[in-house]
Amino acid sequence: MADRRKKSNRKVVKMRKPLNLNIGMLIFVAILFYVLICIVMYFRTSHIVRYEVKEGSLATDNTYRGVVLRDEEIVTLDTSGYVNYYARENSRVANGDLVYAVDETGRLNEYIEELSLGENTLTDRELTEFRSEIVNFMHEYDSLTYTNVYDFKYYLESTVLKIANNSMLQSINNMTSSDEVANIVNLCYASRTGIVSYWTDGYEALQAEDVTSDIFDTDTYEKKQLTGNELMAAGDAVYKLSTNENWSVVIPIDQERGAELLEEDYIKVRFLKNQYESWGKVSLLYNGDGNTYLQLSFTNSMITFVSDRFLDIELILNEQTGLKIPNSAIVQKEFFLVPEEFVLTEENDGQNGIYRECYLEDGTVSVEFVQMDFYSYDSDEKKYYLDNSFVSAGDILHRQDSQDTFVVSERATLTGVYNVNKGYADFKQINILYSNDEYSIVKANTDYGLRVYDYIALNADTVSDDQLIND
Question: pTM to 2 decimals?
Fold first, then answer.
């Protein structure tokens, strides 16, 4: 019993196994640690994205709304009475042609009805004109400018009235009792040649230099149609005569854009109303309201748009084509300017560079040849653009086979991009032809410039000079 009690009091101690390092586990931990470091470095480093340069063009919005200016003469009524028009609207009348008649008593219609003239019928020509106007209206209809519907309505009504009045006039001319007719109606004739219109809007005397932004406010614009068979008072506007084939369209425009267009002298214009195209002479206006306006003057087709005060036009410009690059790739870089006589250019062996003064270890002055690439050449000043990584302000350059020297000091800036074809960032000058908010069109195949299918850094802010580009 004593032995059993002795055995039960013994403590059992568990032996600790020795640490057994697995080489495979160590490698796995090392790789995991390396991957984590790479991930952190990736997200903390700016990445260089390549962009392939291709040919292209930029589509620009060249559509504008302009106000139409022409020589317009308002003819007023001499005596009160009921006015009946006989000249077709938007038609040309000569001096002495009948335009309208005034019925001072109001008895003309009653007199005509007694004659039992019968129904008026339209000729084939008149029917063709009606069809043409209806088709044009259908193509030009815009729900945003619903007032055009009323213009079309007034045009049809006035045309019908003029056809009826012409028939009435023919019947009056056939009357034998001329004295009785003379007491009823007063015939009025055109005093000069021009295009007849039966509407007014208060802009008849508007001049190009008086155009302001308020003119284009359609909410305040009011066009008054003059319809026939209505009672008018003496002094009222009875019709309008456009007397000159020269006319113009004035559009609001950005000052910088206007200066560019002014260099064109003449611009081809497409009128969106009927897709008609014409050439307009360009003039730039700086009016009193502080805005800039472009005046396009024409010498023909005034009659086509004589019924319009405002026109939507498109400027047909020579579309700029070239190398299309994103604006984010464009950078400004500063260079030193060196006269061409201090620059060595050898096209055969590629030995382009300069002779720069230097000091040897013993302190003596010497001249060393520094090979480099040039980034641009100013043909007017006859100077090369040298990178500041090769020369510094105050460097003394020597002319080959001469004792002449030049001290580097003058600086200038070039616009360019970073070419990454060779695996490092190499600055290339660009000549921008046109730009918008996102892209620029640059001239192709220029000296020291880009070529199609070159690769450039998409974002110039992520690149520095001669930086190695890792794939």
Answer: 0.56
Q: Identity (one letter) of the amino acid at 398?
A: H
CA distance 164 to 203: 31
State the average pLDDT over residues 416-441.
89
Span 123-131, mean pLDDT?
68
The Cα-based distances of 277 to 65, 252, 262, 378 in angstroms read 16, 20, 19, 41
- SS3 category, 77: coil
The span from the CA of 301 to the CA of 70, in Å, is 12
What distances in angstroms separate CA 95 from CA 98, 185, 195, one per listed residue?
Answer: 9, 21, 11
Taking a C-beta distance cutoff of 8 angstroms, is the pair 353, 420 a contact? no
Q: State how far the Cα of 403 lies from the Cα of 416, in Å rounded to an integer.
A: 35
Query: Which pLDDT value is given to residue 176?
Result: 40
Q: How many other CB atoms sit within 10 Å of the CB of residue 426?
A: 19
Burial class (CB in 10 A: 0-12, 13-18, 19+), 2: exposed
Q: How far apart are CA 441 and CA 434, in angstroms?
A: 5
154-199 pLDDT, tens digit per residue, is: 666 666 655 555 555 555 555 444 455 556 678 889 989 999 999 9
The pLDDT, as a whole number, for residue 363 is: 84
Consecutive H or E run containing 262: helix 255-262
Residue 401 φ then ψ, to 5°: 60, 40
Question: 350: helix, coil or strand?
Answer: coil
Instruction: For tokens 């800039």, name the residue.
Output: 292
H/E element, 71: strand 63-76
Q: Counting runs of H as helices and runs of E as strands, what totals does the chain give?
A: 7, 29
Q: How many residues does the chain have?
A: 471
Identity of residue 186? N
Alpha carbon distance 109, 101 (integer Å): 12
Contact 216, 251 (CB under 8 A): no
Q: Is residue 406 very low, low, confident or very high in pLDDT (cuts 50, 70, 90)?
A: very high
163: tokens are: 């056809």
- Among candidate residues 198, 201, 236, the one with its CA nearest the CA of residue 88: 198
Question: CA dist 279 to 5, 255, 313, Å?
Answer: 125, 21, 12
- Rounded Cα distance between 417 and 298, Å, is 43
* 84 strand-pairing partners: 101
Are residues 284 and 292 in contact, defined by beta-carbon separation less than 8 angstroms?
yes
Residue 301: is its pLDDT beyond 80? yes
Tokens of 21: 């390092």
Determine which helix (DSSP H) or strand (DSSP E) holds 130, and give its type and residue range: helix 124-140
H/E stretch holding 377 reads: strand 376-378
Of 468, 335, 358, 469, the closest CA to residue 412 belongs to 335
**Distance separating alpha carbons of residues 297 and 16, to the nearest angstrom:** 103
Instruction: Give 74-83 pLDDT, tens digit per residue.
Output: 999 988 888 8
